[in-house]
Amino acid sequence: MKPLVVAVVGAGPSGIYAAEALIQQSEIPINVAVIDKLPVPFGLVRYGVAPDHPSIRSIRNTLERTLEREDVRFFGNVAIGRDLSVEELRGATDAVIYAYGAASDRHLGVTGEELTGSIAAPDLVAWYCGNPDVHPETSIHDQQQHNPVEELITRTREAVVVGAGNVALDVVRVLIKNNDELDDTDMADEVLAVLADKSVTDVHLLARRGPAYTAFTTKELRELGKLTDVDLVLEPADFELNEVDRAVVAADKVAARNLAAMEDWLQREPSGASRRIHLHFWTRPTKINSSDDPAAVGAVEIERTRLNGEGRLESAGDLPAIEAQLVVRSVGYRGTALDGVPYDEGTGRVPHAAGHVLRDGTFSPDEYVTGWIKRGPTGVIGTNKSDAVETVQALLHDVADEALSAGHSIDELTDLLAARGVTPLGMADWHRIDAAEVSRGQGHGRDRTTIAHRSELLAAAADDQ
User: FAD/NAD(P)-binding domain: from which residue to which, for each copy (predicted)?
Assistant: First the structure.
């Protein structure tokens, strides 16, 4: 029986879990082409999980086993929309699963958000994780170009992080930690060099709701309390719970654990530490003001919030502004449109029914979707596994109904790319990059050092030594 050829666009957890679900089923033979615009696989596991969380980042070892399967082929450094159109990809394979995630960000919608020093958490995270898309290559004058984030980091004393999720906590930790607390991570050398020069003394985290409503996981939250030479500053009034707050805590074990951790911090006496994390609950930004430089961030105007009778947030009055040179919005990721793929601007997702893509309200015969671009940026890494299973079940149902059948070879995709002069990177190339990063890290006393520039990644992939 001829194998069905399925292309998966995106080599992050959602895409690799889709590949895993395809090859683990025994109903029909399937060959999978996992395609990613980056030279390396693993998506947000490599470029989104904080480098000081090595246990979570090690999930890539499990994901790698799927990509090593004989019936799975990795096509790295291939951008759909640049190297191949969606129409061409569909023409060379039997089915396509879109798993390219949600790499954009949501905006605060306040005046001053466009000022220099106001940035999105995804951009900062991509920088400190060493994503080559945000690390410029050497210029034609042989001078190293820089991401604007680097200059911001080194001149910031006070930073404001807006958001109440784990990404916001990651950003807070990276901004406040001493460099020697980051030296054993796999951060790129140039990232560590910039962080070594940072002058951040205070980070303010703004959460629109109260401490009973945070989206933090308790383990990540408790890490703040273990940081050296850092005082945690909280407002006792934020922890005066009403009946609704207490009901939320009683019904949610995570909320209860988070609240207990923060209430413990309330009892601590200030130690006179050189750095501080300020947790502001029932607080949201209303305006970002400029500094002496009219184009740069200088302060954040904020207001107190509360829930009205309908459970919606409303203003409860202005609060004193917070001086800041850096504002990081961490209020959610958002999917973006890929040319040739249906897209709902309102939701930031690909329209679908149980993972089966809808075009003009009807099922597209060979298109499916999984991950954040399917359901939005919700859940943890493992959530993508059950999500992928649902999508693959939709695909298998179409095969059983004879709405989808095998008609292509995976070599057709290779030949099509070759005709365009595109040579994808495979798993052998990844292994050479991996070895180069391990070698670079061991030379600095670390397990690995991330290679942040695309040209260096490609050079490592081509190095037979």
Answer: 6-199
| Tokens of residue 342, six digits | 């249906």
pLDDT in tens, 334-360: 999 999 999 999 999 999 999 999 999
87 in a known ligand binding site: no
Residues 228-263 pLDDT 10s:
999 999 999 999 999 999 999 999 999 999 999 999
Q: Is residue 80 a known part of a binding site? A: yes
378: which 2 tokens?
């919700």
Which three-class secondary structure state does DSSP give residue 376?
A: coil
What CA–CA distance (Å, rounded) separates 96 from 90? Answer: 7
Between CA 458 and CA 417 the distance in angstroms is 17
Residue 349 within any structural domain of the chain: yes
Establish whether 44 is an annotated binding residue: yes
Is 161 assigned a ligand-binding role in the annotation? no
If asked whether residues 408 and 377 sit together in one domain, one would say yes
Q: What is the CATH number of the domain that holds 413?
A: 3.40.50.720
Report helix angle 13-24 to 383-400, nearest 10.
Answer: 40
Question: Is residue 275 annotated as involved in ligand binding?
Answer: no
- For residue 213, give its domain range: 106-329
Q: Is 318 exposed, middle or buried, given 0-12, 13-18 or 19+ CB atoms closer than 10 A?
A: exposed
380 carries a ligand binding annotation = yes
Total tally of structural domains belonging to the chain = 2
Residue 434 · residue 39 · CB < 8 Å:
no
Q: Which residues lie closer than 8 Å to 20 by C-beta, 6 or more apart?
A: 66, 385, 388
Residue labelled with tokens 């408790």: 222
CA pair distance 269, 275, nearest whole angstrom: 15
